[in-house]
Write a structure and sequence with these properties.
With 307 residues, this protein is mainly alpha-helical. The protein has two domains: 64 residues, no CATH class; 224 residues, MetI-like fold (Orthogonal Bundle). The chain has 16 helices and two strands. It has a two-stranded antiparallel ribbon.
């Protein structure tokens, strides 16, 4: 009871301070709010282009309205299903293969007793995250070229970058190598809160490694895993075009052309602004729907806990 009273008094004291010095908080929050408004919310008005026959000279308000013309054009396109399937396959396969890796890395790192060795391994694992996407794609192209190290080791002359069936494994494996170490930071931090006493008790009771993980470590990261899964599953359609575009060749387009690269080519290269905006908006709407569905499914499977 005394603790509750103290907490209430502390909260009331904090609120009085905030109310008295509200100008200070406005000064600190205003730049962030302005930047968010200018660069996040105002540009959202550009989605109106998807419903117009946009003319840059006439502008956003002067262009002719055409309704869902460009959405119908995209949905009736013979390439629609190919781009949609390519995007979904790249995302879903990447999620299935890539999502567990950071969790496994965090669990393995948590087993290392020596702080010095653990820090060195973490540094090595985190380094690929600081390589830019374009540099990564350049390295991949060099490694997999006809005269590259991979072909030299295999004593072959295969041009992997021209093989449509090789594009997805290359994209996914390189992504795991680049991002898994950095993504494991959150799980490593969550594991630091696992009860050491409970772990020692489990060891004393003869629990093996898998039983220790199930009883002690998994409960510590379970909520984090659920949140990350919802966020990643909800972004299934949001594949950045940079990496896919940089790994594309004329011969692997059958697998490499996704909605994001299609939007880029139509909008910036062909100047078909209205059509590319409609395709991008369609992609975003599907993404939001998937996020809501995945969140509800996960909440039902996780005792009502979701985002």
């Amino acid at each position: 009871m005394e603790t509750k009273v103290k907490e209430e008094k502390s909260f009331q004291k904090t609120m009085r301070y905030v109310t008295t010095h509200w100008q200070l908080y406005v000064i600190f929050l205003l730049p962030a709010l302005l930047l968010t408004l200018i660069f996040k919310y105002i540009p959202m008005g550009g989605i109106l282009i998807a419903f117009q026959d946009y003319n840059p000279i006439r502008g956003l308000l002067g262009s002719r309205w055409v309704g869902f013309k460009y959405f119908e054009r995209f949905l009736s396109s013979p390439d629609f299903m190919k781009y949609l399937v390519n995007t979904l396959k790249l995302s879903v396969y990447g999620l299935l293969w890539g999502f567990p890796v950071p969790i496994l890395l965090a669990l393995l790192l948590n087993r290392i007793q020596s702080t010095g060795i653990k820090q060195k391994i973490q540094t090595i694992l985190y380094l690929p995250n600081f390589i830019s996407v374009i540099v990564l794609c350049g390295l991949v192209r060099i490694l997999l070229s006809v005269t590259g190290p991979i072909n030299l080791m295999l004593d072959t002359q295969i041009n992997f970058m021209t093989m449509p069936e090789a594009f997805r494994p290359i994209y996914i494996i390189s992504g795991i190598w680049q991002g898994a170490g950095w993504a494991s930071i959150m799980y490593t931090a969550a594991l630091s809160g696992a009860s050491k006493e409970l772990r020692e008790a489990a060891i004393m009771d003869g629990a093996n490694i898998f039983q220790q993980i199930k009883v002690v470590e998994w409960p510590a990261i379970k909520d984090m895993v659920v949140i990350q899964f919802i966020l990643q599953a909800g972004n299934i359609m949001s594949i950045g075009f940079e990496k896919a575009y940089a790994l594309q060749t004329d011969l692997n387009l059958n697998s490499a052309e996704i909605i994001a690269t299609y939007v880029y080519k139509k909008g910036l290269l062909d100047g078909d602004y209205s059509f590319s905006t409609a395709v991008g908006l369609f992609n975003t709407v599907i993404n939001v729907i998937l996020l809501v569905i995945v969140n509800k499914i996960t909440a039902k499977m996780n005792d009502g806990k979701g985002l």
